[in-house]
Amino acid sequence: MLELQRKSEEQCGPGMGDLEYTLDVEDIDDDHAVKIDLTPLYRASHIHTCLGLREQFRGYYYNNRRMQLELDLQTSSVQPFVESYQSFLAQIAGHFIVEDRVLRTSGGLLDAEQAETMWENAIAKMTSVLGEHFSRMDSTTHLLLVKDYVTLFGTTLRQYGFEVTPLFEALDHSLDKYHLLLLAECKEQIVSVISNDTYEQMTMKKDTDYENNVIAFHLQTMDIMPAFPYIAAFSATVPNACRIVRSFIKGSADYLSYGVHVNSFDIVKRPQASLTAKVVLKTSRDAAYTALLNLVNKKLDEFMALTENINWITEEIPEDCNDYINEVVIYLDTILSTAQQILPLDALHKVASGALEHISNSIVSAFLSDSVKRFNVNVVKGFDNDLRMLESFVDERFHATGLSEIYKEGSFKECLLEARQLINLLLSNQPENFMNPVIRERNYNVLDYKKVATICDKFKDAPDGIFGSLSNRSTKQNTRKKSMDVLKKRLKDFN
């Protein structure tokens, strides 16, 4: 349409034809378009030419249009910019659309240099005004509205041959601010969603609920529609968070559309930005796993605290496990069964491994506790029973969860290695071998010298019953005691 207008104008003489212009390129209805009638200007120009005053009239026209432009470029000090930006930009657009026609159809009343000077002054003022008001805006909605209208203004004037790159660059300068505000809004929404979460699984009673909360975000695990009512494996927080993330993506895409960026893909994926995004996402994911693991370990501490009720100098050889380990295994079974349904395998492995390492550390810490002044071999055998039960359980779960297919070179039992090596050392017939570098590297490589020294110093190889000192000891017991005494002495010398 614009090209046809230009051809028509170029074929018309001064004062001929009343063509229509509109800022909104979509609004081309004749009843709504703005009509430009330049007949009075052409008539005045012709009269002054006949009187030999054309140059004076040219100067008069240019000076008056320049002063009019200066008035148009003034912004209101009492009206907010978000309420006046449309009239501000539309007035300037109208000014230069008129000047474009005058330049091409008035026979030299306005020359290209004069039009260029007016445009340069206008573009400098507009970029200054936009920069100032963009810096004050704290609403993504306002930024997006103004940006869209500025883009429409720039696109329209560019079709008339005006250089609008500085205007688009001004929009580009607000890109980071827009995304920071958008991110802050989404963060606030996410915090609200999580804080109000009841952690109850979603119940969907009809197919539209399933489509809006599951299919819409590709959360389904099967291609067929389930029977209703359907109980999801997640709470309402999951689809709500997906909606917030989608709104962020849409808001970002809206700002990047129809602007200075020819290819928005280059903006959302630079290698450096991609790397940054990966780092941020990995950090967020790891923080979530750590928070979950902390909750699990806090609950495990309640069960591990039951070791304080153990008789550390019992005269009876235990046949069963201690009570605390039963509570631990029941809790782990519940946690792993639930986690297997909702967590990816790498997260499941991370949480389970962390929990088992915590249990191992807690067992070693129990022997180091100041409340334990001494202990005998019977209590060590009790902990050996506990570890065997736990190792059997975690070995079975390691294979049942499918983790053994991914982590082929290790198992959950390795997470219990410190506790297992300590128990093996205390039950060894030759504990002094701990000081042998080769044997230590092979059998006790995760044990710390200082911890071993503290624990062994509390170890009494025989129970303290009334007849303990008179009881017959086997040669094996005597040999083990002598070896332990040698270890204690060598550890003291080493320290």
Walk me through what this model shows:
This protein has helices spanning 2-11, 39-50, 54-72, 81-105, 112-136, 140-159, 165-173, 175-195, 207-213, 237-256, 264-268, 271-304, 323-342, 345-368, 377-400, 403-406, 417-427, 437-443, 449-458, 475-494, and strands at residues 20-21, 34-35, 203-204, 230-231, 375-376, 459-460. The protein has 3 domains: 2-172, no CATH class; 179-270, no CATH class; 277-494, Up-down Bundle (Methane Monooxygenase Hydroxylase, Chain G, domain 1), CATH 1.20.58.670. The chain has a two-stranded antiparallel sheet. The longest helix has 34 residues, at 271-304. With 495 residues, it is mainly α.
Summarize the structure.
With 495 residues, this protein is mostly helical.
Attribute tags:
495 residues; Methane Monooxygenase Hydroxylase, Chain G, domain 1; 66% helix; single chain; 20 helices; elongated; mainly alpha; two-stranded antiparallel sheet
Q: In the CATH scheme, what's the topology name of the largest domain?
A: Methane Monooxygenase Hydroxylase, Chain G, domain 1
The computed structural class is mainly alpha
Order of strands across the main sheet:
1-2
Estimate the strand proportion: under 5%
Q: In terms of per-residue confidence, which ranges show pLDDT below 50 for 5 or more consecutive residues?
A: 13-33, 463-472
Rg calc = 40 Å
CATH architecture assignment of the largest domain: Up-down Bundle
So what's the overall shape?
elongated
Count up the domains: 3
Helix content: 55-70%
Query: Briefly, what CATH class of the largest domain?
Result: Mainly Alpha
* Assigned CATH superfamily of the largest domain: Dsl1p vesicle tethering complex, Tip20p subunit, domain D
Mean pLDDT: 83
Q: What is the terminal-to-terminal distance?
A: 93 Å
Using DSSP, what is the number of strands?
6
Number of helical segments with 4 or more residues: 20
Output the helix-strand order: HEEHHHHHHHEHEHHHHHEHHHHHEH
Q: Characterize the main sheet.
A: 2 strands, antiparallel
